[in-house]
Structure formats: C-alpha cells, structure tokens
Amino acid sequence: MHPVIFEIPIGGGLKIHSYGLMMALGFLAALWWIRSQGRREGLPVARLTDLTFWMIVWAIIGSRLAFILLEWRQYWAHPLDILKIWEGGLVFLGGLLACLVVAVVYMRRHHLNFWRVSDVFAPGIALGHALGRVGCFLAGCCHGRLCDPHAWYAVTFPATEGALAPPGVALYPTQLMEATTEFLLFLFLALKSQKKGFDGQILLLYLIFYSAFRILNEWFRGDMMGGAIVGRGFNPSSWVSLLLIIFGLIMLLYRKGRSP
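Below the sequence we write its predicted structure tokens.
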C-alpha cells in the first residue's frame, strides 16, 4: 500500500522503500534473537554474528536467484531490473535453502555443532521473516487472489505508484496471514527452545510447520510465480515445501531416536 515510506531531498530525491526497510528491520530482529539466545546457550557469539552476516548475504542472493528463475521472461527482456531488489522480488524458500548450505559449510569449517546452532537460528529466522512479510504487504508483492469484497479480511490496494498488487479489487491478505503465522511460530519455537528434547528439534519443527503453512498460503496467492503445476496454488514453492516437510519429519524421527 505504501511502497515508498518517505523521500529524502538529496540530489534527485532518495526514496526509502518500505520493502527494503522492513527487510532490514527483519535482519536486525533476527540478529538480536540469535545473539541473545546464543549467549544463553554458551555459544561463541562472535562466530554466530559472523555466520549471520554470511547468511544474510546468501539469503538475498539465493532468494533473488530463485525469483529470477521463476520470472525469467521478465528479466530476459529487462536484465537491469535484476538489481532492483528494493522493489520486491525475493523468494524466501530460495534464500532459506542457500542459508542452509552456507551454514553447513561455515559450521564445519569452524567446528560448530550444526544442530545446536541451527536451533538458535530457527526462531530468529521466523521473527525476521514476519517483519519481511509486512514489507511485502506495504509493497504489494506476494499478494492474494480475488476474494469476496464484503469479507472482513479482504484488502484493497490503492492505485499507488510503484505498488505491485492490482489496485481497486478485493484480495486475500496473504502477506499479513504469513506475517501473523511467522510471529506465532517464533513464539512457539522460542518457548520450545527452553525445554527442547534434543539438538535439531527446533530447526526441524520450524521447517515442518513453516512449510505446511506455506503450502496452505500458496493456495490463496494471486501472483502465482512460475505458474501452477497441479491445480490452484500448487506451484514450485509448494513442491519445495512438501519436500521440506518430508525431510523434516524423517530427520525429526531419526534425531529423536538417537537422543538419550
């Protein structure tokens, strides 16, 4: 609804985009949780901070590459638009997978326990993602499909310059739905972290619950990046989420069986 929060009169005018601002706040919130929880767990906070930096870099790269692959026709015609990440255009699952790879490499190199450290990161990722989805709502990206205009949950985006959602029609508030779920997931994982059964439980619970909701949320999406594969809403993100659920359940049972 408000793709540009305000403009600073410097040069031709420096625009502060809501999407980029909320993404930055999300990263800071995640870092706050990781440092705080890492200190309570007795982990090397300096290493966690360093790892967070690399994960942020690769989260942006991975999520942007995933979006470009899904919308390659647009960027083939306008290649310079690849650099305009402040306007939206990030696929969270692409960034998540990139972060997992970077985390494995970094922790093996610095002899950190992957499962224990990942349990610290998981709630922070959920918290940061919740704020990022608010940015999606303000920018109009990741919008929902048409719904009953008289429904209490319907949202209508105005015809604002730079907004990515279709204006003047009632849509499902998919961005706010995911932001709310992510924040509730953060609270659940934060509480569960205080009495987890084994290392890796928090990360795996995050993957399972987030992926399950992501499949449901995709059914209400109206942008349908990459096109539907099987029926309404079952697009590439849904397939990746399904694979993450299967992986999470298998590893959860495996890790639980190995725990004392």
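Confidence is low (pLDDT under 50) at residues 226-231.
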